[in-house]
UniProtKB/TrEMBL annotation:
Its main location: membrane. Keywords: Cell outer membrane, Ion transport, Iron, Iron transport, Membrane, TonB box, Transmembrane, Transmembrane beta strand, Transport. It comes from Pseudidiomarina andamanensis. This is TonB-dependent receptor. SUPFAM superfamilies: Porins (SSF56935). It comes from the Bacteria. GO terms for cellular component: cell outer membrane. Residues 188-648 form the TonB-dependent receptor-like beta-barrel domain. It is found in: Cell outer membrane. It holds the Pfam family TonB_dep_Rec_b-barrel. It is a multi-pass membrane protein. Belongs to the TonB-dependent receptor family. Residues 33-138 form the TonB-dependent receptor plug domain. The keyword Cell wall biogenesis/degradation does not apply.
Length: 690
């Protein structure tokens, strides 16, 4: 039964009627109500209503989109209950991808900063036919604000509780022969939301993050256009989130770090001189250096009688991606089997190298366990899609992607593994548009992600032959496949005062990659294995309606029912029929936008989320919760002043959870430990338009 808070009617500010939003995640630009798939779009206005500075601030707006912490930022995402939740020794294969200005940041969700982002598109369901192996469960696409012909921009300054300050500017316009350019620079910092009572500090979870994005659109010759993009991201964050007492008061004597330096660039060259098609060549490079460390015992020497143990765990990763793509896209339909047909064909290559240095340090014995690994992944893909216009009202879209991967792994434990396989994905969509603003569709799609290696399991030496054989049998795991059948309906009325998007879906998972843990012979090891399968069913609804010319009500609802099939944990727990991890049964975001006066608008909204399991290897769960957010915006000439608040009732809610024994005071009784989400935040922001 849904929480009573879901019936709360809130207030949200909107100057304009329902906006017809174009999405860029399809091969061709389409309006949201024309795309035959379940996609949500967050505009800059919607982001601003929650003062969203990072994707984790606005994720609860989107139906059936969840996230996990376990770090200072929400790095990993789950769509319809599918997605990774953490990364330690082993390389990961993302189920949910992230593109920022066309650059692949999959697995690096901390980079999803929202300053000067014009919109965020969230595609749910298999997207491998369009985006490849990183889009098996869905894809997030972030696009920077485009430069205009005339100069424009803005300054932004703000402050909030927990010592938060922010500042940034964005500006762009015509640069003569160079074309149109836009530069965005932003810095934010806060003290974090924990108090380390042992060290008497309130900044061990502090955050300091800064970004710079530059985009340039150049007409270099007749019919030749070049888009050049450069990104720089720097994160210097503390990490001290878990408490033995399950509070926001920690006891760590060696707090960790969550740092990142990312540099990325992309060039996309478009030739539009051919009569029947345009050609796009693109190349991007991404370099990401990260450090993730934590106090492994969450405590200090002497916390319990005779307790002399202290240790830290640290992971330095260097990742380098090179991506090449060539695409040919029809600009006028051809005749195929008597039907007018648009087409796309393309070739894609990704080279990804990831180097890990792990250092586990026991500070009592000064035992230093060093580990190094190198992981190289190369992918090649051929893809194509045709859209056939069966009549003025009916369209049939058929797409196919063939992708070959080669993953090579080696480490300091003399483990070396080479994996190769070929994967096939795509979609078939039949859509019907009976009238302007209406569309019904039925889409079958298939997604995939690559197989991988269990590096930690392979590298553990043991004198137990049975355990050694057990680990060797799990040295690697196969690709996973996701098949989906989705039926949807989209409607927007002629006077733009009502919009409705509804999607019903059923998904089947094959060779599901699930995380397991083994604790034998004083050996605690995490590894991934392929379960037999899984089922996912659900509903997604987004509604915007004008109650009066100045008051708008919105509701975004996700319902989810998931099942694990053919999976027994190492502890002998049969998970058959249990819900998948991080798959809440419902997610609701609802509110009302109110234009109070010509210059004053208000927003109030509520997020409600059902409880969910933290892991597929144990049965600990979060609690359901309701969060209240509000903002008040005052516009005076070029100035905009925003008072905002998130989680105004200061509700405690968990974003990550583990189940094990870690407290010497209770002799290591297994306990559910959680990382808490953001507490009450209130602040003020000043914007000045140039």
């Amino acid at each position: 039964m849904l929480s009573p808070a879901l019936l709360f009617v809130a207030a949200v500010a909107a100057d304009d009627p329902v906006e017809r939003i174009a999405v860029q995640g399809q091969y061709r630009s389409l309006y949201v109500n024309e795309a035959p798939t379940s996609v949500s779009v967050l505009t800059s206005d919607a982001i601003g209503q929650r003062h969203g500075t990072h994707m984790e601030d606005v994720l609860n707006v989107v139906p059936n989109l969840n996230f996990s912490s376990g770090s200072s930022r929400a790095r990993f995402l789950q769509i319809r209950g599918i997605g990774e939740r953490s990364q330690f020794v082993d390389p990961i294969n993302p189920s949910v991808g992230i593109l920022i200005d066309g650059i692949n940041y999959s697995g690096l969700g901390q980079a999803a900063q929202l300053f000067d982002i014009s919109q965020v598109e969230v595609y749910r369901g298999p997207q491998s036919g369009r985006f490849g192996a990183d889009g098996m469960a869905g894809m997030l696409i972030l696009e920077s604000t485009k430069a205009r012909d005339k100069f424009d921009g803005f300054w932004q300054l703000g402050a909030a509780n927990y010592g938060a300050v922010e500042g940034g500017f964005a500006a762009g316009g015509e640069l003569g022969a160079l074309g149109r350019a836009r530069l965005s620079v932003y810095q934010q910092a806060d003290d974090g939301f924990t108090e380390n009572t042992y060290l008497q500090r309130d900044d061990t979870q502090s955050r300091s993050e800064r970004i710079a994005r530059f985009n340039l659109w150049t007409d270099i010759a007749d019919h030749w256009q070049l888009r050049s993009t450069a990104h720089l991201y720097r994160q210097d964050n503390g990490y001290d989130a878990f408490s033995l007492d399950n509070t926001r008061q920690t006891l760590s004597d060696e707090p960790g770090e969550d740092d990142a330096t990312m540099k990325a660039a992309r060039m996309a060259l478009t030739y539009s001189g051919a009569e029947t098609h345009e050609t796009v060549f693109s190349y991007s490079v991404l370099s990401a250096d990260t450090l993730y460390s934590y106090d492994e015992d969450w405590s200090y020497v002497g916390i319990a009688p005779g307790w002399e143990y202290s240790s830290t765990d640290a992971y330095w990763r260097e990742r380098l991606d090179h991506t090449l793509e060539a695409r040919w896209l029809s600009t006028q339909p051809i005749d195929l089997m008597g039907l007018s047909t648009d087409w796309v064909i393309g070739w894609y290559h990704l080279s990804r190298a990831e180097n890990l240095r792990r250092e586990f340090m026991n500070w009592d014995t000064y035992a230093d366990d060093m580990f190094n690994s190198d992981y190289e992944s190369k992918r090649h893909a051929l893809y194509g899609e045709i859209t056939q216009y069966l009549s003025d009202q009916w369209q049939l879209t058929t797409g196919l992607r063939l992708e070959r991967y080669r993953n090579v792994y080696q480490d300091s434990n003399t483990v070396g593994v080479k994996l190769r396989d070929t994967m096939l994905g795509g979609r078939v969509s039949l859509s019907y548009s009976p009238a302007f603003g209406q569309m019904a569709y039925l889409t079958w799609s298939r997604g995939y992600k690559t197989g991988g290696v269990n590096a930690e399991a392979l590298g553990k030496a043991t004198d137990n032959p049975e355990l050694e054989d057990f680990l060797l049998q799990r040295s690697s795991f196969a690709p996973e496949y996701l098949t989906s059948l989705e039926a949807g309906y989209k409607y927007i009325n002629v006077d733009d005062t009502l919009s409705l998007n509804v999607a019903l879906f059923a998904q089947n998972r094959d060779d599901v990659q699930l995380k397991s843990w083994i604790n034998r012979a004083q050996t605690f090891i995490g590894y991934i294995e392929n379960a037999a399968g899984g089922k996912v069913y659900g509903l997604e609804t987004e509604l915007n309606v004008a109650l009066t010319p100045k008051v708008w009500w919105f509701a975004n609802v996700g319902l989810l029912n998931t099942k694990i099939e053919g999976f027994v944990t190492e502890d002998g727990i049969d998970m058959e029929g249990r819900d998948q991890a991080h798959a809440p049964g419902y997610q609701v975001n609802t509110g009302i936008n109110w234009q109070v006066t010509e210059n004053l608008s208000a927003t109030v909204q509520v997020d409600s989320k059902d409880s969910f399991y933290f892991s597929d290897s144990h049965n600990s769960q979060s609690e359901s919760y309701n969060l209240l957010h509000a903002s008040l915006q005052w516009q005076v000439d070029a100035w905009r002043i925003t008072l905002w608040g998130r989680n105004l009732t200061d509700e405690d809610y968990a974003t990550r959870g583990f189940y094990f024994g870690n407290d010497p005071r209770d002799e290591y009784q297994p306990t559910t430990y959680v990382q808490w989400g953001e507490p009450r935040r209130v602040g003020i922001t000043f914007n000045y338009a140039m």
